[in-house]
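We treat protein structure as text, and this decision shapes the records that our systems exchange. We quote a single record here, exactly as it is kept in our systems:
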Amino acid sequence: MSVLEIKNLHVSIEDKEILKGVNLTMKTGEIHAIMGPNGTGKSTLSAAIMGNPNYTVTEGEIYLDGEDVLEMEVDERARAGLFLAVQYPSEIPGISNAEFMRAAINSKRDDDNKISVMDFLKKLDEKMALLDMPEEMAERYLNEGFSGGEKKRNEILQLLMLEPTFAVLDEIDSGLDIDALQVVSKGVNQMRGDDFGALIITHYQRLLNYITPDVVHIMMDGKIVMTGDADLAKRLEAEGYKGLSEELGIEFDEE
């Protein structure tokens, strides 16, 4: 079992404090969801975990199995088993999907244990079939000219191919129709097991109808203010953030 620990995390961007003391512990075998209104720090948390240089950690700690994540470079975090699926994946012309994923897999392996071309292609075909992705997407340049739905499926394809220990999935449901949402959810559920944990950042209960979380966190004003099971997300859907904020005595700006 692996453990990702976030302790009293404070993060700023351009001298504005966004996270104001986030505490969260996640283990493999668990799916956690974070919900909260816009601007409350959900995506900032994902950026801080993966080491985005635009975000400054001013206080707090992040540990992966006791190792100090904040001392790692971005590529070291990925090799250690952390993965981020972002809201708006970058387009990288000149590098095919297949080339990118094989290089990413091999970067986590020793020189004498690189994945063979045949093993890679077999695995790639299997995972693309699971996500209903046409074979030609493997040879297209990374995200170049992809629709929003294709980019999201491609992020989940990378997740399935790389098999990280912990994945942070930042609004993977954004802009997806029901069919695409079901396919993306199928990919995440395929990974579910004792050796994998995920932190899903979302605004909507509808994603959690397909990926049932073990733990739901509500974030407001840069902190986690409430934690519960999957029923908490359903309650939020019914009451809204305003209702919860009044119960907690937190000022909520509906804008």
In short: The CA atoms of residues 81 and 165 lie 5 Å apart. The longest helix spans residues 230-248. The radius of gyration is 18 Å.
